[in-house]
Amino acid sequence: MKTYLYVFMLAFSLILVGCSSDDDKNINSNRANDISTISLEDQILRELNDNSENDEHVIDYDIKGDYIFVISTHKLHGLKISILKKEGNEVNWVIGERDVTSLTAEGAPVATVLTEVQLGLENAKDIRVLGEPVKSIEYQLKITDDYSKNIKYWVVYTDKLLDFSKDVEYITD
Fold first, then answer.
1. CA 57 – CA 127 distance, rounded (Å)
2. ∠ at Cα 114 (131, 122), nearest 5°?
């Protein structure tokens, strides 16, 4: 009788081990297939939601090499810069900060975001950095049903932090 009990327990254990191993392989395989079929924008949104507050609105993103720089906004906190890294078919979180002017990560360019409020230049038409025009973005952020806020900013990607007194030219005419 003891022999049958040991054989039964051994057989049952082997079945459990065999099933769980296949399930793990299927889960990993499904995750890999899931990531490869999700659009880049959906992967970006997934990483932002997993690593920050859900009530952010993505305004814009730029891809620089393996890095994705995301500019988002929050009703109460202003602009946020997030850096994600594309590794194979996956997009992974690197860093994100609110209310900063410049942000970088090891190996990534420096992202600098300049707002007209920060600069005190509500009438600025253009900004040049190191003699080159900078990407300008305007966005209408809906705060409530009857109130929205206009956000205007410029973003530039450089190899080093900027010296605002030497590297940045403000054009107001």
1. 25
2. 100
Q: Tell me how far apart the alpha carbons of residues 146 and 71 are, in angstroms, rounded to a whole number.
A: 24
For residue 10, pLDDT over 80 is answered with no
Which segment of 7-21, 88-102, 148-162 scores lowest on mean pLDDT? Answer: 7-21
The strand pairing partners of 91, in sequence order, are 86
Q: What are phi and psi of 134, to 5 degrees?
A: -115, 145
Q: For tokens 């499904």, name the residue.
A: 30
Share of the chain above pLDDT 70, in %: 71
CB atoms within 10 A of CB 50: 9
User: If you write DSSP's letter for every residue of 17-48 in order, what string do you get?
Assistant: HHHHHHHHHHHHHHHHHHHHHS-HHHHHHHHH
Alpha carbon distance 38, 33 (integer Å): 9
Alpha helix ranges (H) inside the chain: 2-37, 40-51, 116-119, 164-167
Match 């900027």 to its residue by tokens. 162
**Which amino acid is present at 37?**
T
Q: Smallest Cα–Cα separation from 48: which of 95, 4, 12? A: 95
